[in-house]
Amino acid sequence: MNDSVARAGFSGTGDLAPGQRDESSRRAFATGLGAYLVGLALAVGLTIASFWAADTGLIYGPAVKAALVTLAIAQMGVHLVFFLHITTAPDNTNNVLALAFGILIVFLLMAGSLWIMANLNHMSVPMNELMRMQR
Amino acid sequence: MSASDVTLRLPSSPVALDLRPAPIIEPSEATGHGEGGPAPKRIVVSYGFWIFLLSDIVMFSAFFAGYAVLAGNVAGGPTAAELFDVRNVEIETACLLLSSFCCGVATLAVEQRYERLTQVALLLTGLLGLAFLSLELREFAGLIAQGAGPSRSAFLSSFFALVGLHGAHVTAGLLWLGTMMAQFYAKGFRPDICRRYFCFSLFWHVLDVIWVAIFTIVYLLGVRT
Q1: What is the pLDDT of residues A49-72, one digit of tens each?
Q2: B213 touches chain A (CB under 8 A)
Q3: Residue numbers in A near B212 (CB within 8 A)
Q4: Which residues contact A6 (CB under 8 A, 6 or more apart)?
Q5: Residue B217 is part of which domain span?
Q6: What angle do CA B47, B209, B203 make, to 5 degrees?
């Protein structure tokens, strides 16, 4: 209780901690539960769509990869908004900026590794040819 | 020397000490934008933990990159399509998603100080997490039993490293969850206990976000190619 008492003096311009909803919606249990249920429904829908897209013949084969990645990113977004309460509201600036930096590093690490390793594979002599050259 | 003179000069020290109390910063005036002093502890603790979680995600991305690079190097051994059971992954996903939802309900219960609902929701969170973990361990045991252990190929090494790292996080999360239930039971909704709990809830939700990446990249895309 002490924390919310300490926060009672807030005019509403203060920051929100990550995972915390704003003051007005924090009071009601029912609205909070409703938001979590919406999040759960969206996440379940996207999960089912992912597993369906993975082994359906209805989607053009080479496009399935893109579809799965898109569905995964959408589901991560749902988790961030409905479960972690990360939004783009002004009281969330710090949280969302930290997240953006994290995503930048993740992107550099993944894309950089794949790019470099694909290049190395492309430039190097395949193992069976290397064996033939040594003979 | 008058009584209202609050500076004190020690005989051995030439420096005058100011004994007036430091100005007290009201935490309730803080906006977190640098005005009115430091932000309340609740925000500082959660934000610090959020930064830790982001660094954890960066570590996971290195394991993901390793897996993505090595996924094709099966060394003549079994491939992802031959090994993975998508049905099992579906059940695991359902367990973890429902566990994350129960954790959300527990967060609401903690905010409202509902004691019994907190314990019930946390118990469900833990049981679903335990179900996920046992399914994952059964899958690992099955793979190792059919000779597809981590030492079989680079693909399997990176698979066990990535999915095992997530499993290790879930195990640590379950221990933390048990500790939180015990602390709520023994100490009640003290502010410091609640701060710990909010950190735990962030941790648990982030594990579910990472699992979304795992079931898409490792299992669904792995089985297709």
Answers
A1: 999 998 888 888 889 999 999 999
A2: yes
A3: 47, 72, 75-76, 79
A4: B27, B28, B40, B42
A5: 41-224
A6: 40
pLDDT tens, residue by residue, B70-127: 998 888 889 888 999 999 999 999 999 999 999 999 999 999 999 999 999 999 999 9
| Cα→Cα distances B3→A11, B6, B16, B20, Å | 42, 8, 16, 13
Closest CA relative to residue B89, chosen from B210, B173, B211: B211
Domain span including residue A54: 17-86
Do A67 and A50 sit in the same domain of this protein? Answer: yes
- State the DSSP H helix or E strand holding residue A9, giving kind and residue range, or none if neither: none
- Same-domain status, A72 and A132: no
Nearest residue in chain A measured CA to CA from B220? A54
- Residue B143 located in a structural domain: yes
Q: How many CB atoms lie within 10 A of CB A60?
A: 9
- Does residue A48 belong to any structural domain of this protein? yes
Report residue B37 as tokens: 């002093």
Write the burial class of residue B118 (CB in 10 Å: 0-12 exposed, 13-18 middle, 19+ buried). buried
Q: How many structural domains is chain A composed of?
A: 2
Q: What is the CA radius of gyration of chain B?
A: 25
Full-model pTM: 0.83
Name the nearest CA neighbour of B173 among B114, B139, B125: B125
The ipTM, to two decimals, is 0.81
